[in-house]
Amino acid sequence: MSQLTPGKKRYVKRELGDERPTIWIGKSGISDTLIKEVEKQLDKRKMVKIKILQSAIGEHNAKQIASQIATQSQALLVETRGHTFMLYKPKKK
User: Fold this and answer.
1) Where are the chain's structural domains?
2) What is the mean pLDDT of residues 65-93?
3) Which CATH number applies to 6-88: 2.40.70.10, 3.30.70.660, 3.30.70.260, 3.30.110.60?
């Protein structure tokens, strides 16, 4: 997967900055259902904001969880801030 350009990173941060997360990861953690929902929202909007609840943190930290979800959904991790992160997936041509 290609890297995000600094301009595209700024664009995604600006678009999702003030928005509330649309997906929350709870104590069930990373499941197939969660990945399907992430992919569905990425197909629809190209970007998604996800919040990891404290109950899901366990032995992993937020960056590890975010990069695992990004890999499984074939998206690019834009930014991790606290327990919230943003993913971006360019449209297929």
Assistant:
1) 6-88
2) 91
3) 3.30.110.60
Q: Which residues contact 11 (CB under 8 A, 6 or more apart)?
A: none
* 32, 46, 51, 88 from 16: Cα distances, Å: 24, 11, 12, 11
52-73 exposure pattern, b = at least 16 Cβ within 10 A, e = fewer? beeebbeeeebeebbeebbeeb
Residue range 13-42, pLDDT digits in tens:
888 888 899 999 998 889 999 999 999 999
Are the C-beta atoms of 66 and 86 separated by less than 8 Å?
no
SS3 90: coil
Buried b (16+ CB within 10 A) or exposed e, 35-47: eebbbebbeeeeb
